[in-house]
Design goal:
Elements (H helix, E strand, L loop, with lengths): L49 H5 L2 E11 L5 E6 L5 E6 L11 E13 L5 E13 L11 H9 L2 H4 L5 E6 L7 E10 L8 E11 L5 E5 L6 E3 L4
Antiparallel strand pairs: 1-2, 1-4, 2-3, 4-5, 6-7, 7-8, 8-9, 9-10
Length: about 230
């Protein structure tokens, strides 16, 4: 299932059909989804056609996490190939369901990029999800778990009041999350502090979980075990 992870697109504007749990099954033709793009990188696209919108797709995916902090709610899943898939969603999905295998139905829909002239673009709208009795595609950590792993590093523990946050998402199946670290600093002779960028890390989850620190001068990766 081809798709691109939506970088940061989340939140309160509601579009399309609602997320629902249930056992509803639809006999539909399996189809490859159109690539989902983000407002930051997308080219202008036309709204979906009636035929595209009428086609319901069904997939078995593992739920990773839900985010509702941007223009649209987004639920992130992972498939058996390790590819991340983000589906727009009307309602939140309980964080405790992370790691659960689900049967999901979705359809193509038209969305609008805020801040760029309300440009229409195509995206994948989650319709329903059903939690399957058992099974998981692969171990996969949420953003919060990755942030906690970085906070646990000795060089981060040594900082005073460090802030750790995921800045960007993988653009390919075997890509990385960018995790930034900031901390309050005060210029010499001043008691006024401001947050300054201290470190950047890359967290990979496919094919295996690993954390790498980025050397800001050379842009090379340094395994955390060597720090």
């Amino acid at each position: 299932m081809k798709s691109t992870v939506i970088a940061i697109l989340f939140a309160t504007v509601v579009a399309g059909a609602s997320c629902q749990t249930g056992s509803q099954q639809q006999q539909v033709k399996q189809a490859e989804p159109v690539m989902v793009t983000t407002p930051d990188t997308m080219a202008a696209t036309k709204p979906v056609t009636k035929a595209e919108a009428a086609t319901i797709h069904t997939d078995t995916l593992q739920f990773v996490e839900f985010d509702g902090n941007g223009d649209y709610y987004v639920a992130t899943f992972i498939d058996r190939d390790g590819t991340l898939t983000s589906l727009y969603c009307d309602n939140d999905i309980d964080a405790n369901l992370s790691g659960k295998l689900m049967r999901v139905t979705w359809q193509m829909d038209t969305f609008y990029a805020a801040g760029v002239g309300d440009t229409p673009y195509q995206g994948e709208q989650l319709l329903t999800y059903k939690i399957l009795s058992s099974g998981a595609v692969r171990p996969y950590k949420t953003r919060a778990a990755m942030e906690e792993d970085v906070k646990a590093l000795p060089i981060i523990k040594a900082l005073q009041e460090a802030s750790v946050y995921v800045e960007s998402y993988p653009q390919t199946a075997n890509g990385y999350y960018t995790v930034n670290v900031t901390a309050p600093v005060a210029p010499e002779g001043s008691t006024v502090t401001y947050n300054e960028h201290i470190y950047t890390f890359r967290v990979y989850q496919v094919p295996g979980y690993r954390i790498m620190m980025v050397d800001t001068a050379t842009k090379k990766e340094i395994p955390v075990k060597n720090l």
